[in-house]
Amino acid sequence: MKKLITLITAILFTTSISAQQTESKVWDFTLPLSEIDYENLQADKEYVTSEGETDYFNWYRIAITSKNTKAYRYFRYGLGQKITDAVTDDYGDFVQLYANRQYLDYTRGLYFGRYDGFIGPKMIRIEPGSRLNTNCSNLAIKIPNLKAKDVVRIKFSTGSTADAARYFELTNGTVPGKEPTKISSNDYKNPVIATITVTKDGDLTMKESNGMYIYAISVNKEIQ
């Protein structure tokens, strides 16, 4: 009987811990686009303009040559005037990426905004089968509604081919080391994986110092 009570107690404790964590999730940017995302990007006429125009809330689409994948494309997303015009103490407005009036599965649940300065057009590059390329400074990525002690992992490298050191500054998250609210990379060819512990219930925000290559982000899930 005593063993049974101990077993039940252990199960209840494990269930309680599990219930306190956010459901696991992985955004793997090295995977191809889903069919629906690709179709929406191709179909989006309202938000696709010529490269020379400056409507910063539009999709910019550029075809490039085959890269050992069928019909390889990458898409450039221009952060909106809505973000450019709105800066508040809580980092202003954030949006999910969308095309053809549909949120993209590729980044669904991640929110993009700015924390200072100006973000020009075509600065977020979706590179299917490769990475997410945030080719700008002043950009922040937010993962909302996390729980204290959730673990967020991000695989990334500096976007500088000159290997200039770049970093994310964390709000509501810490990492081990001398700079607990900063994660950095100075080698664009060799991504690093940072393991971030959420400090308290709420949103985790990662502000980048300049352009980054992002390969994966996860919540409560290992990535490689």
Any key phrases for this structure?
3 helices; mainly beta; single chain; 9-stranded antiparallel β-sheet; 224 residues
Q: What would you note in describing this structure?
A:
This protein is mainly β. Helices cover 14% and strands 37% of the residues. It has three helices and 17 strands. Strands 1, 2, 3, 8, 9, 11, 13, 15 and 17 form a nine-stranded antiparallel β-sheet that branches. A six-stranded antiparallel β-sheet has the order 4-7-10-16-12-14, with no helix packed on it. Strand 5 and strand 6 form a beta hairpin. The chain is globular and about 45 Å long. About 21% of the residues have low confidence.
In short:
With 224 residues, the protein is mostly beta strands. Helices cover 14% and strands 37% of the residues.
Described by strand count, sense and barrel closure, the largest sheet is: 9 strands, antiparallel
Indicate the percent of residues in helices: 10-25%
N-C termini distance? 44 Å
Number of extended strands: 17
Give the uncertain stretches in residue-range form: 12-18, 47-73, 79-92
Topology pattern, helix = H, strand = E: HEHEEHEEEEEEEEEEEEEE
Overall mean pLDDT: 75
- What gross morphology would you assign? globular
What is the strand content? 35-45%
Estimated radius of gyration:
19 Å
Number of helices: 3
Output the structural class.
mainly beta
